[in-house]
Amino acid sequence: MTLESTESVTELAGRMPPSFTLGVAAAAFQIEGALGEGGRGPSGWDAFAEKPGAIMDGHSPAVACDHYNRLPEDVALLQELGVDSYRFSLSWPRIQPDGRGSFNPEGLDFYDRLIDQLLEAGVSPMATLYHWDTPLPLEHRGGWLNRETAERFGEYAAAAAARYGDRVAQWVTLNEPLSVTLNGYALGVHAPGHALMFDALPSIHHQLLAHGLGVQALRAAGVTGSVGVTNLHAPVRPGSRSIGDRMVARMYDLLMNRIYADPVLLGRYPTLPVYARPWLRSIGRISDADLRTIHQPLDFYGLNYYFPVKVAVGRGVTPIPANTHKAVARLPFHEVGYPELSSTGFGWPVAPEHLAILLKELQDRYGDALPPVYITEGGASFPEPDKVEGTLQDEERVQYLATHLRAALDATSPGGMAAGVDLRGYYVWTLMDNFEWAAGYSQRFGLVHVDFETQARTPKQSFYWYRALSRARKNRAGQ
């Protein structure tokens, strides 16, 4: 029986609206490599990766998937996959190595080639302006703790809009400001490696300000594509019904979800509970002018979902990673997880039902203020060999993607628990195995296996499953 004829593929395709987008996502720093080639300057992540112990097993991002030099091969994979859209990111230090001032012609030309080749292959471009690779000179001046970085981002966005605005179908300003703040500035496990704990909160506001300035720059340039932002969200639940657990769950929800989405969608920061204010005071007083800048009309809202979170009061007994600041052990709460659920290679719980819950929470919180939604990242890593012969049978990934897609479609269909959410598409993370940040090459999320010694690309079973799903959806829509 072929993948195309399996009941799961045809049944799942039948649940999708005719215009539903199936896509795949990737990020420049994780796949391009080629530091110094074509005029790319260093980013904060290049500097962070050189620190002893920062990256698992000392892995280097210098080559990654060598996408910069293998662009036609990778676009051919996208064409073979048959997806509607490819979400990629522009490398800020490739386009503007100093983060201000002049722009790099070779860097601009590279993304011209990518966009043109995508269009020739029948794949719609979704461009993310910032996926964590801050130009190192800006990082040296404080990075996202410095308001200037937001202003420089607006200038960079204007240059990208002027160059690509006639061909990019969708624009994402920022990817996961939560991850940048939490992992990069609060815990120190990602670039730039600061362990500031609650003093990292100004990086939230400056990223959101950059988003607003970026939207304004895109609109001013008259881009023909739609404009949005992408946030990582997760439903947060208390570890028990105790008052303490419910209090810290509410605070964690504010820190993980609402402090990012409320200013963008509602034009205001969430009201902080009295008990949380001492920890959150470092964000400071926010001007009405900044909130107006952040609260820009959006064409869509990007949602990245991987797993739910459960927290309990107290310090807990979970071991603290060696490269995490010791102050984490003094936090008034800890994650307790979902030990009853299966998990991914990262140890993340597999919980498609919580994606439906999250969509309902977004609907309930934002109502008419919530634009159409794209799930801009969804996927999982599983233990896989460094080398393969033939097609890797990654049934766990196929099951993961099928159940999460089904949960999202069911929740947003007429009569579903989140029927008020206008869900427009789903992007798999990720096209091919890549440099997975601090985890190096130890976690493989790709639909395509990459041998990092030879750079050989080998499509996995999930690649062919997703291709079959895309074909079934297009056949149903009469495309």
From TrEMBL:
Belongs to the glycosyl hydrolase 1 family. The lineage of its organism: Bacteria, Bacillati, Actinomycetota, Actinomycetes, Micrococcales. This is Beta-glucosidase. GO terms for cellular component: cytosol. The keyword Hydrolase applies. Substrate binds at residues 30, 131, 175, 306, 429, 436-437. Coiled coil: none annotated. Keywords: Carbohydrate metabolism, Cellulose degradation, Glycosidase, Hydrolase, Polysaccharide degradation. One of its GO terms (molecular function) is beta-glucosidase activity. Pfam families: Glyco_hydro_1 (PF00232). The keyword Hydrolase applies. Its EC number is 3.2.1.21. One of its GO terms (biological process) is cellulose catabolic process. The active site is at 176 (proton donor), 377 (nucleophile). It catalyses: Hydrolysis of terminal, non-reducing beta-D-glucosyl residues with release of beta-D-glucose.
